[in-house]
Every structure is written in C-alpha cells, then in structure tokens.
Amino acid sequence: MIENSNISRMKRIRNILFIAFTILSLLIVRIGYIQFVTGDKLKQMAYEQQSLDRKINPKRGTIYDATGKNVLAISASVESITINPLNIPNESKEKVAKVLSEIFELDYEKVLKKIKKKSSIETIVRKVEKEQTDKLRVWMQENNITSGINIDEDTKRYYPNNNLASHFIGFCGSDNQGLDGIESIYDKELKGENGRIVRVTDAKGGEIGKEGEDYISAIDGNDLVLSIDMTIQSIAEKYLKQACIDNQCTDGGNIVMMNPKTGDILAMATYPSYNLNSPYEINIEEIKNNWDSLTQTDKNINLQKMWRNKAIADTYEPGSTFKLITTSAALEEGITTTDKEGEFACTGSIEIAGVRIKCWRYYRPHGSESLRQALMNSCNPVFIGLGQKIGVEKYYQYLEKFGFLAKTGVKLPGEAKGIFLAQNKVGPVELATISFGQRFEVTPLQMVSAVSAIANGGIKTQPRVVKQIIDSKTGEVQEQPVVEVGRVISENTAKNVLSMMQSVVEEGTGKNAAVKGYSVGGKTGTSEDGVNTNKYVTSFLGVAPISDPEVVILVTLYNPTGEGGHQGGAVAAPVGGQVLGDVLPYLELNKDKQEDEEIEEVEMPEIRNMTIEEAQKTLKSLGLEIENQFEENINKKETIIKEQLPKPGIKIKKGSKITVEI
Asked: Among all residues, which ones are annotated catalytic?
C-alpha cells in the first residue's frame, strides 16, 4: 500500500515537472521570438509610444537667374502648429480649440475634434506667418500653458516674380516637394534634409520636461544658378504676350532663346503663364468663372494644360523654317551651291510620283532662282527637288544628326521628341513634304537646338538649364558642364547657311525681324496645326549677330486669328525683331552692321474691294506699292482686289511691297 502511494506520488511529481518544463520551454521560445523576431518592431513601438517626434522642414535651396543675383525662387521661415492631445487637460480643450480657430481662421469643430483625439500628436495648421504664431505665444503665456501646444519652425516657398518663367521654374507642393519644372527635376538638390525634435514622455504620454527634448537641425537644400537671364526672360514674355493678344492667338505661343555656343537656354516663355505663388488658380478667365461647376476630372485636365510647357512637351509642324535643314543637308552633300544663277526654276508647282505640289506663290511663280533666292522667297518646289536628290536614307541620317529623332536631353520634365514616319514608310511624296517642313512634328526646343548647331559652326550642343549648383553646407560651387553632342555639318556649310539666313532678313520674307546696327539671320514659317483644322502655326527662327552668333530665337504663335493673318513674315518676324532689338544691346554685343537710316513705319490700309488703280494710289501716298506684276491686258480701273497681305492695321516699313489677290 505504501509502495503504491510512493509510485503514485512519483508519477505526479514527474507530471508536474514535465508540465513545468513544457511551460518553461514555451516561455523560452516565446521570449526568444519576442527578442529576436519582433524585438526591433516592439522597440520601435515603445519608442513611438514614449516619445513625440516632430519633423523640422529644411529651407529649400534658392534658385537664381544666370547672373547669380536675381532670385527666382526662395524659401522663407514660417511656423507650423501641432498639438499633443493627451497633454491638454479636459477642462482646457474647448478653450484651446477656440483660440486656435480664431487666430488661424480655422473651423472650430474640426479643431476641437483633433484636440479630443486619443493620439500623441495632431497637426493644426502649417506654414503660417510669425505674426500669427506670436499671438498664440502671448495667449499661452497669459494662460500659463506650457505643454500640449507646439510651435515649430517651417519653411514656405515664394516666387518673387510671380508669373515669370512659370513653366520653366515650376512649383512645390505642401511638403516642399518639387512638382514641376526645375523644382521637380532638381528636387534632390533643392530639398535638403529634414531635422527633428524628439521629446521623451512618461507611460501616460505626459512630457518629461525640457531636459527630455532632443533637437536635430535640418540641413538646407543646395542653391541653383539657372541658364535663363531674368531680363531676357522678361523681354521675351513682354513681347510674346503682346503678340498673342494683338494677333488673337487662341492657343497661345512661346519663345525659346538659346546661346548656340554653350547650349544655355536664355529664355523659355509660354503664354498664357500662371502665378507660381498660386499654381492651382486657373489663368483663363472664362474657365475661372465656371470653376465650381466643373468635375474634378475637368479641373485636373485644365490645370495640367495650364502647367504644360509647350516649348518642350508639345510638338508642331515647323513649316518653312525646316527648309534650313534641307538647305544644310544639300550643301553638305555637294548637291547645290548658294549663288548659282538660274540653278532652279519655279513654275508654281512640281509633280512628284503623280502628285502635284504647289508653291505658296503658285499664282505668280518665282521663276529662275539661285539657292539663296529660293530661301529668301521660301520657294517650296526648290526644296522638294533638293529633298529628292538627297534621298530618304541620307535625309534621315541628317534628321538624326540634327536631333529630331530623339529628345534633346534637356533637364526639364515632360520632354517630347519629333514625330516622323518610319524611314521604311517614306516614299517620294512623303519625302517631298518633309523637305519643306510639313506632315511631321517637332518640339520648339528641338528646332532651336538644331539651328543652334548651324549658328555654332556646325557643332551641336546639348541644351543646358542649370549653370551651377552651390552646396548649402560648404558654399562649394559645382559648375555644370557644357556638353557638345558632336559635329552635324562642316563649318563652311554652316557659314553659307548663315549668310543665306541673313539675306532672308535683309531682302526676303524675314524683313520685319531686322534690328538696327546688327546683322540678323532668320527664316519664317507658316504651317497647319493638324489636318483640316483650319488652324495655323506661324513662326520665326532667328540668329544674331551673324558675324559671331550669340543668340538663336524661335517665336511660335499658335492659331493667330487677328487681322494680321497667319503668315510668319507678317506676324512672327516682327516679334523676333522686337525681342532681339532689346536683347542684343542688353548683352552688350558689338554692333556688326552699318546703321541704315531709320525707316519710317506706316499702318497698312484696307485695300480690299478697291480697284487696282485706287489701291495703287492709296499705297503710293503711304510709300508702299503692290508687288504683283499684272498682265498688260488687265483693266486696273475695274479689276477688284479680293485679298491683301499684310492685313489692314499692321505696322510695316515704308517701301514695303504688298501682295494682293484679284
């Protein structure tokens, strides 16, 4: 009996020991799991529970113009308000909500809801001026509130010049992150590194005095020196706005200016612009008036359209400005020369693969021409013929060399590239239209970049938008290199093309771009904006001074519908002349042309519905004349003029010739 009792007792002890061992083993496994598997996570949770971690935003780097003196974007010190709801006594919550909502003009109920939350930290308002936060400081002192309300330093982005270069510079979001333009593409350089305020709390979330606070300073972002010059940008924007309004350009316009030697973008203007300090405020009055009735999708579409940098993101049909590329390729291949009299003959049209393509002046053909004269006259058949001689394969090699088949590589967001048919799909007719600038599309920047290669002696340079990056900690200046892409054409070919461009401005379709005292070269262009849209794009591409080019300019106006018409020579060339007339002296470039006596300008009269004889008398009184050579048997006393170019109201120089249709 005793033996059985001992056995039973031993069995119970073994069972107890086994259970104890099992429990101990499970505890060890559990402790190991907690320590080694979830230890870091639990440690972080404990840290978050026992500390109040508040972010300090760094000052975003300053953006300067090319001079390094004019500020285009700057971050100023402001402050943000956060609260620790657990540290605000229940009896004070409504009082705190009331004062916060009054000082910062917030909704009382929303503020009170945040104050009553059982959370460690809540944001009340961000990026407010110090004048407002000082009112809160005074109230806290008067009411002996030392904890629960935090006033932390913050930064806010300002653009001193509002709309200037808006599509180029871009803007920032509420967290100081770059959202567009330079602000976006150089965000890593500009944004800096966040700082922190860490305050240790007790188990209930209460603060453990100031001695438990750890302050880690923010590191400010680096500064940028851009390629654009504020003065040149202002000049470009002034004349672009004026041109778009005067010519009723329904789809706006842009001007791009580039230094062909360095690739520096001196100006990149788009109209209409928008205010960088309020980038979500629409810039078109009609849309603004109906803003509240739009869906969120429509609002986003309109905002994206407003922010879009048409100079790099949109493509257009370049028209006759592209004849410079055909000219360059033909000269480089030895197919033609600049001044061989009678080398070409314009009969008003040319037939290619059974398709007859007209010259723009088909009604009065140009007749016998040299290449220089053909470029001055912008004669389509001559360039169609040159394109056929160059051939598709060789022509596409030049398209690639000039950079039309790829992006330019400019450091701006949203860049597009040219839209061309695949080489194997280009037949004689397609090559013909490409040769004089139609039925394909390029970006304005691609066009400027390509002609800059001609202006730079045949060497293509990559567009540059930032010249220097300045380290905020050390002040060290990092120069951004000039990148030469390579030689496109020979120096001799480039020189010959520039010479012909000068003739276009002095004697051809680009007369209205002439600048007193400077040799200016250029080419005008007019093209359709899409197929059967009845919209046009008018442009002028200029180089100055021809003796030593420092500026290449492209003026592009989208769908001008005013009385001035849509011809590049009458609408876009004058804008190019106005801009260059202000920019060249500003750059202190030496005048390289003997100044002619200033020619008086007159206003183009209305001569439509007049007889030829009446029109001739009216024009003669103003120092103008009709360009057309009429047949001998035409009755000038009875024949009525149906159309005129330029249109009435346009300022033109005395001695100009007027084209009419009868």
From this structure: 320
Neighbours of 531 (CB within 10 A): 7
Q: How far is CA 220 from the centre of its chain?
A: 26
What's the CATH number of domain 52-226, 3.90.1310.10, 1.10.287.110, 1.10.8.60, 3.30.565.10?
3.90.1310.10
Stated pTM of the model: 0.81
CA distance 555 to 577: 10
Q: What stretch of H or E contains 345?
A: strand 344-346
| Alpha-carbon gap, residue 234 to 164, rounded angstroms | 7
- From residue 111, how far is each of 9, 81, 184 by CA, in Å? 69, 12, 33
Per DSSP, 211 falls in state G
Q: What are phi and psi of 446, to 5 degrees?
A: -60, -40
Cα(252)–Cα(305) distance, rounded to whole angstroms?
12
What are the residue ranges spanned by the domains of the chain? Answer: 2-37, 52-226, 312-586, 601-661
Decide if domain 601-661 falls under CATH 3.30.10.20.
Answer: yes
C-alpha 446/C-alpha 425 separation (Å) is 23
3-state secondary structure of 640: strand
Element (H, E) at 330: helix 323-332
Q: Which CATH class is domain 312-586?
A: alpha beta
- DSSP character at residue 589: P
Q: In whole angstroms, what is the distance from residue 262 CA to residue 227 CA?
A: 10
C-beta separation of 578 from 601 below 8 A: no
Round to whole Å and give the CA distance between 509 and 226: 35
User: Residue 487: helix, strand or coil by DSSP?
Assistant: strand
Angle between helices 108-115 and 93-103 (to 10 degrees): 140
Query: What is the mean pLDDT for each group of 10 consecutive residues in the chain (662 residues)?
Result: 65 79 82 73 54 73 96 91 87 89 91 87 88 90 85 88 97 90 96 76 52 72 97 96 95 97 98 96 92 94 96 96 98 96 94 93 91 95 97 98 97 96 96 96 98 98 98 93 97 97 93 94 91 87 97 97 88 96 93 68 88 90 82 84 80 79 82
Q: What own/partner pairs with CB < 8 Å and gap ≥ 24 does 541-544 have?
A: 541/321, 541/324, 541/447, 541/448, 541/451, 542/505, 542/510, 542/513, 542/576, 542/580, 543/260, 543/451, 543/454, 543/455, 543/498, 543/501, 544/515, 544/518, 544/519, 544/520, 544/580, 544/584
| Structure-block tokens of residue 369 | 């021409």
d(CA 545, CA 589): 8
Q: With H, G, I as helix, E, B as strand and everything else as coil, classify residue 657.
A: strand
User: What is the model's pLDDT at position 599?
Assistant: 65
Q: Please classify residue 147 by burial: count the beta carbons closer than 10 Å to its beta carbon, then call 0-12 exposed, 13-18 middle and 19+ buried.
A: middle
**DSSP 8-state assignment for residue 442:** B
Longest dimension (CA), the chain: 153
- pLDDT value for 637: 86
Q: Prior bond to 646 cis, omega within 30?
A: yes
d(CA 433, CA 440): 9
Rounded Cα distance, 514 and 577, in Å: 6
Question: Residue 504 in contact with residue 373, Cβ under 8 Å?
Answer: no
Token digits of residue 287: 């849309």
Rg of the chain over CA atoms, in angstroms? 36
Helices (runs of H) and strands (runs of E) counted in the chain:
22, 26
Q: What distance in Å separates the CA atoms of residue 525 and residue 65, rounded to the nearest whole number?
A: 31
